[in-house]
Amino acid sequence: MSSTTPASVSPTSSAPPAPPAPAQVFVTGTGRCGSTLVSALLREHPRVLSLSELFNHLTDMYRITARVFPEGTLSGAEFWRILSSRNAVNRLLTTHGLAPKEILYPASGSARYSGESGIPALLLTTLPHLTDTPEALYEEVGAAVAQFPDAPVGAHYTRLFSWLCTRFGKSLWAERSGGSLILTEQFRQHFPEARYLHIVRDGRDCALSMSRHSGFRMGAVVMALSLTLGHDPYAETGPAGGELGFVPEELLPFLPDRFDAAAERDYRLPPSLFGTYWSDEMRRGMEALSALPAGNVLHVWYEDLLAAPGPSLRRIAEFLGPEFADEEWERRSAARVARPSSSWRELPAAERDELDEACRAGFSSLAAHDVNRYDNSPLRSGI
């Protein structure tokens, strides 16, 4: 007696092939370099999942913690604890109405979270950047992550980003966090397939913008407090009374239990301080980027994006891949590019000179790696 196997269950038939893994891109820069604009423009591309500020809100400026990229194997629950962590500095800034504009979560009215309760890192910017219903998406992500198998943390992030690409019907994710250039070495380790779109801006304008930005200003203050106290007061229990004697009087209003919003608004930090920070970040970032294959990195000057948005956006699309060419996206995005509101050239002469000197090392790092303006103008150390 012969028998046949129905075609529907034939041993030679197979399930539909899994969709290809999404391409991986980090939009990186020193902070205040124009990467926020690029992230917003990429969000409008029909094939790109624009992930904004995730690693920035997980790491805290100047404090790259081991909990963001822990060693070993993590469960889904352990990974979720990273994503849902709440940042003490952001909590204070939000509570006192000082949150930078990059924070998109509407912590008011009927919102589930507030400055007082703390807002989960994933909800501060990343999910509101993707949807008008971030709390519902937060629950979806939590349920999905709970099912993730044990894996190294890089595999968890990659699985999460792939899940979001599937959820939104995208074929490439582009994560952009302000000041993430210093994370390039960690990204290289945990995302070996990723490519890098590096947004470069004149360091003097970056530094001037940093000096007026609440997040960067608080980062500098927390660094000063940490150096003075020998520990981070925003990561540990506040200092004992005896330790307060070591804190300069002008920094006392920035201790967590004494935070004064008016003092934060009035506290002045020279742009040259941030110029030194920009130079150091540029040096470290360029060293890490230079270790990658040349085809995996694209440097785009913010000044070129402002002066000629069409060609700059076309370069970005070509870097993403031939399937990302989209003239309509380029046209709409170019129309959204606008001039910044201030310039380092408006500073008093003495401050300009100090800022020039502070940024000199960063410009030298760019020149040493042949990262010149796309319009082929000489860099001349940026001076």
Q: How would you describe what is shown here?
A:
44% of the residues lie in helices and 8% in strands. It is built from 16 helices and 7 strands. The termini are far apart. The protein has a 5-stranded parallel sheet, with helices on both faces. It has a two-stranded antiparallel ribbon with strand order 3-4. The protein has helices at 35-43, 54-59, 76-83, 88-95, 121-124, 134-146, 153-168, 184-190, 203-211, 214-229, 261-266, 271-290, 302-307, 309-320, 327-334, 349-368, and strands at 23-28, 48-52, 73-74, 151-152, 172-176, 195-200, 297-301. The chain is an alpha/beta fold. The model is unreliable at 1-13, 237-242 and 375-383 (pLDDT under 50).
Distance between the termini: 90 Å
| Total strands | 7
Task: Extract low-pLDDT stretches.
Answer: 1-13, 237-242, 375-383
Mean pLDDT reading: 89
Task: Evaluate the radius of gyration.
Answer: 23 Å
Structural class: alpha/beta
How do the strands of the widest beta sheet line up side by side?
2-5-1-6-7
Number of helices: 16
The main sheet comes to: 5 strands, parallel
Helix fraction, binned, reads 40-55%
User: Percent of residues in beta strands?
Assistant: 5-15%
**Shape assignment:** globular
Succession of helices and strands: EHEHEHHHHEHEHEHHHHEHHHH
